[in-house]
Amino acid sequence: MNSYDHRENVNKVWITVLPKLDRQEHYDQGPYAVIFARTRGLTSRLKKKRTSLENCRRFELFLLSERYHVLRVLAFHVVIATTGRLLDVLENRYLLLNQCSYVIFDEADRMLDIGFEPEMQKVLGYLPVSNQKPDTDDIEHEEALMNNFATREKYRQTVMFTATMSPAIERLARAYLRRPAVVHIGSAGRPTERAEQIVYMITEDKKEKKLVEVLEQHFDPPINIFVNQKKVE
C-alpha cells in the first residue's frame, strides 16, 4: 500500500471491525477483537473513530493506557493497544483473550522494523488455539467458510496491513496464519502509476527553504509531509 492509497490510515481497520460485534455474552472472557498499533499516538487516532461507529452499532471500545486496571471490572468488545502494553496486561492477568476472534496489526511492517517481532510473537501466543481455522482443503470451500461465519464459534481472523512484504512479515504469516489470502494494492516494488515522484538533491541546510518553495507552487490541499523523526523546535 503506497502513500496515495493511505488516505486516513485508520479507516481500513474499522472496515474490518464493523461487521464483527454482535455478540454480548461472556464478557469475562475478554474482547472479541484486538487492534495493534505501532505507537500510542496511533492508538489514540484509532479511538477517535469511536463516535461514528457507535451510531452504527452498540459496542464498547477501550484504549489500553495507564488505566488498564479497569479491565478487571469492565467489559469491552474491542481493545486497541501497542504490543508492549498489551503484553504487560496479559502477563499480569488483567485481561484474557479466550474469545478473541479478530486480530488486526496496523502497519505490521513498521512494527517489525522497530524491533517488535518478539513482542508480536508473545502476544499471538496468548490467543486460544480452539478457534484456529483447520489447515485442510475442505474448509477452504466458500460454503464451509460461510457456514462457520454464521455461527458463534467463528474461526479466528488475523489481518496484517503492511506496505511491504519483507521476509520477516512472511515468516510471521507462515507461523500464525492458516492459508492466508494476500491482497496486493498496486505493483510490488514499483510506485503507483497515479503518483508522480520528483527528487531534489540538496544539502541539509537548504531543505527547509526548498520545502517552502515547493509548497508555494499553489498545490491544492490536502498536502502530507512525511519526515523521519518527530522533532519540534
Task: Provide a brief overview of the structure.
Keywords: ATP-binding, Helicase, Hydrolase, Nucleotide-binding. By secondary structure, the protein is an alpha/beta fold.
Key words describing this protein structure:
233 residues; alpha/beta; Rossmann fold
CATH architecture tag: 3-Layer(aba) Sandwich
Structural class: alpha/beta
Query: What distance separates the N and C termini?
Result: 32 Å
- Integer tally of domains: 1
CATH fold type = Rossmann fold
**Percent helix range:** 25-40%
Strand portion, in percent?
A: 5-15%
| Total helical segments | 10
What's the alpha carbon Rg, rounded to whole Å?
20 Å
What would CATH call the homologous superfamily? P-loop containing nucleotide triphosphate hydrolases
How many extended strands?
5
- Give the mean pLDDT: 72
CATH class: Alpha Beta
Q: Which residues sit in consecutive blocks of at least 5 with pLDDT less than 50?
A: 1-11, 55-59
Largest β-sheet summary: 5 strands, parallel
How is the largest sheet built, in terms of strand order? 2-3-1-4-5
* Shape label: elongated
The string of secondary-structure elements, in order, is HHEHHEEHEHHHEHH
